[in-house]
Automatic annotation (TrEMBL):
<dbReference type="InterPro" id="IPR012577">
    <property type="entry name" value="NIPSNAP"/>
</dbReference>
<dbReference type="InterPro" id="IPR051557">
    <property type="entry name" value="NipSnap_domain"/>
</dbReference>
<keyword id="KW-0072">Autophagy</keyword>
<dbReference type="GO" id="GO:0005759">
    <property type="term" value="C:mitochondrial matrix"/>
</dbReference>
<comment type="similarity">
    <text>Belongs to the NipSnap family.</text>
</comment>
<dbReference type="GO" id="GO:0000423">
    <property type="term" value="P:mitophagy"/>
</dbReference>
<dbReference type="Pfam" id="PF07978">
    <property type="entry name" value="NIPSNAP"/>
</dbReference>
<keyword id="KW-0496">Mitochondrion</keyword>
<protein>
    <submittedName>
        <fullName>Nipsnap homolog 2</fullName>
    </submittedName>
</protein>
<keyword id="KW-0809">Transit peptide</keyword>
<dbReference type="InterPro" id="IPR011008">
    <property type="entry name" value="Dimeric_a/b-barrel"/>
</dbReference>
<comment type="function">
    <text>Protein involved in mitophagy. Accumulates on the mitochondria surface in response to mitochondrial depolarization and acts as a 'eat me' signal by recruiting proteins involved in selective autophagy.</text>
</comment>
<feature type="domain" description="NIPSNAP">
    <location>
        <begin position="154"/>
        <end position="251"/>
    </location>
</feature>
Amino acid sequence: SRFLYRQFCLSGLKSLFVRKVDPRKDAHSHLLAKKEDNNLYKIQFHNVKPECLDAYNQLCESVLPSIHTNPDYPCELVGTWNTWYGEQDQAVHLWRYRGGYPALTEVMNKLRQNKEFMDYRTERGKMLLSRRNQLLLEFSFWNEPVPRSGPNIYELRSYQLRPGTMIEWGNYWARAIEIRQQNQEAVGGFFSQIGSLYQVHHLWAYKDLESRETIRNAAWHRDGWDEVVYYTVPLIQHMESRIMIPMKTSPMK
């Protein structure tokens, strides 16, 4: 019939405009993460009762360094901060597990047998309003985060991407990081594996808010930066910035 013929023609036209998707041979994480190491990261966000923030900081400063320096635990405290601008009365901790998921499991099992840590968890629980964490991998084109002398402020920029756009994001930022590394402000770049998915965290270090503004404005005068912003903004569903101050015992000062 004429109706069926019309439907057949329309389906044929649609097929001409269907985007052909190449079958992937590997997971996004294998394409974007570093191949030469097997680091896994955990980021923790602790929302502290305002009246407990000083006591919380003292508790963390008395316990977390002992885990960081203990060779029996295959983990390192990359940095620990309080949020200055952004979500208030919040602590952010970033851990690295050298050896990936087996190292994470080993540390968790050992900590359950560590009385000091279990007492710390009990006391910490009395001070918190809420907490969440994510397991992350680091982008292959970012430097591995290392201890820094200070004083510095740190900016954690978090991006919620549209599902399916992580590879595209990585391709643009693999070029962009060269533009943003001239002042050594780039600390680390990560993408989520467990927790909120399709989320990216970029960590930056600046001497103060004024230098942050100067460095960020200077990027617009370098070739390629405007193009990166133009093509990556449509990939973002939501973004957030935190300005953070290191705790006294943070390896990143």
